[in-house]
Design brief:
- By secondary structure, the chain is mostly beta strands.
- The protein has a single domain, classed as Beta Barrel (Porin), CATH 2.40.160.40.
- Helices cover about 5% and strands about 45% of the residues.
- About 45% of the residues are buried.
């Protein structure tokens, strides 16, 4: 697909989300589900936005800005990523998730220099097969596909299947979440630097401190399943072939502000490596905003 069409495709998805809200609100087919009381509502994931998918079915828009620094023992330099995600509740248990898009800018990175370009497009369906609001326990499974429509100059242009399982459990104002993904590369030779299968794990905890503030802690793990030309994986940042045996764990501290009520959140998180293995990750600031309809 021509890269000029990618923003138009995304714009269409955004307009669809708004039109669904105007026509019936929260759910496209059937009655809207009952929203939890604010103190029992989990903060949506703050980090690893392409892979960290909770077990709730919502209609929302999430805007993301990430500033990422790579260490000199990998590719060095910095990368900025800007993206918007759209989620549409088709029923109380089925959700359309447009989880990957956006634009990436590299700055002074080894080999890549100052390249910039569009990201691949990823979308899928999430089925919340267990929604126990009384006990604050939720389970969901999802299936997605990433279309290699992005630019290989920013290590995109790869096709991937995605399977995931999500769980959330609350204890009043304290909320926990966990997600496991299996990312299956359609062709390991695609893209400028290849690609590899990847298992990812994401853990989340937040606490409803006041009606406008929640602190958040998250841990993310990345486990490449294939050897390749690189001694490290692309984690959630880029597509790279390699990294088998170099498991990566990262930790993040952040918060959510709700200045206008529970539907609108402004969030920030700082994330860094926890493991000593060779890693592309470095450290990262992630800023985001979420609005739920």
């Amino acid at each position: 697909m021509n890269n000029k069409k990618i923003p138009l495709l995304y714009l269409g998805i955004v307009l669809l989300g708004f039109s669904l809200n105007a026509q019936g609100g929260f759910v496209l087919f059937g009655d809207a589900g009952e929203a939890p009381v604010p103190e029992e509502k989990s903060v949506r994931p703050l980090t690893a936005p392409y892979f960290h998918e909770d077990a709730f079915v919502t209609t929302d828009v999430r805007a993301w800005y990430a500033k990422h620094h790579f260490y000199s023992d990998t590719i060095g330099g910095d990368v900025t990523v800007m993206a918007v995600q759209v989620r549409v509740a088709l029923t109380q248990r089925l959700q359309l998730v447009a989880y990957k898009d956006g634009y990436t800018e590299f700055d002074d990175a080894l080999v890549l220099g100052d390249n910039d370009g569009f990201n691949d497009i990823g979308a899928g369906l999430k089925w919340a097969f267990l929604q126990d609001w009384e006990n604050q326990f939720h389970l969901a499974a999802g299936l997605g596909y990433e279309f290699g429509w992005g630019d290989d100059e920013v290590l995109q242009d790869t096709d991937e299947f995605r399977l995931w399982l999500s769980a959330n459990k609350g204890f009043g104002k304290l909320h926990f979440g966990a997600v496991v993904n299996y990312i299956i590369s359609d062709d390991d030779s695609e893209g400028l630097a290849g690609n590899s299968d990847l298992i990812t794990v994401h853990l989340h905890a937040d606490y409803y401190l006041t009606e406008w503030f929640s602190p958040v802690v998250e841990i993310n793990g990345y486990f490449a399943q294939d050897e390749g030309v690189f001694p490290f994986s692309g984690v959630d940042a880029v597509s790279l072939g390699g990294g088998d045996g170099e498991d990566i764990w990262t930790g993040a501290l952040g918060f959510e502000l709700r200045p206008l009520g529970p539907e609108f959140g402004l969030r920030a998180a700082y994330e860094t490596e926890l493991s000593d293995n060779v890693s592309l990750f470095g450290h990262r600031w992630t800023l985001s905003a979420v609005y739920e309809f």
